[in-house]
Design goal:
The protein has 115 residues and is mostly helical. 65% of the residues lie in helices and 0% in strands. The termini are far apart.
Length: 115
């Protein structure tokens, strides 16, 4: 007999349960985003050997590294929100390159200053 968890709980328990579900869901989304960003960077590196890369290819790669660094930052922040603080295993398990780790952080957009 299947029972809904929420029927036997007080409202604060239901809220805590739903918040935990959302944290776990967001953690999964951030992990998948990191995997995708790292895959794009690896595919680019496979298609453009470093020694033969042109200036536009170097610029495109820098953008991919920054995007992967942003995805890494988002994932680390979400992990910490879930109480997961050891990031050494994360870097190893996802095989995060050092340059991506160094670029970890929010993506800063540049805008033209208003006159």
């Amino acid at each position: 007999m299947s029972r809904d968890f929420r029927l036997d709980r007080v409202p604060v328990d239901v809220l805590a349960y739903e918040l935990a579900e959302e944290r776990a869901s967001a953690l999964g989304r951030m992990g998948r985003a990191l995997e995708q960003a790292l895959a794009k960077l690896r595919e680019f590196d496979a298609a453009h050997p470093h020694a033969e890369a042109t200036a536009p290819a170097h610029q495109a790669r820098r953008i991919l590294v920054r995007e992967a660094g942003h995805a890494l930052w988002m994932f680390v922040v979400q992990r910490e929100a879930c109480g997961l603080r050891n990031n050494r295993m994360l870097m190893r398990d996802y095989n995060v390159p050092g340059e991506v780790q160094l670029s970890m952080g929010p993506v800063l957009t540049t805008s033209n200053p208003s006159p």
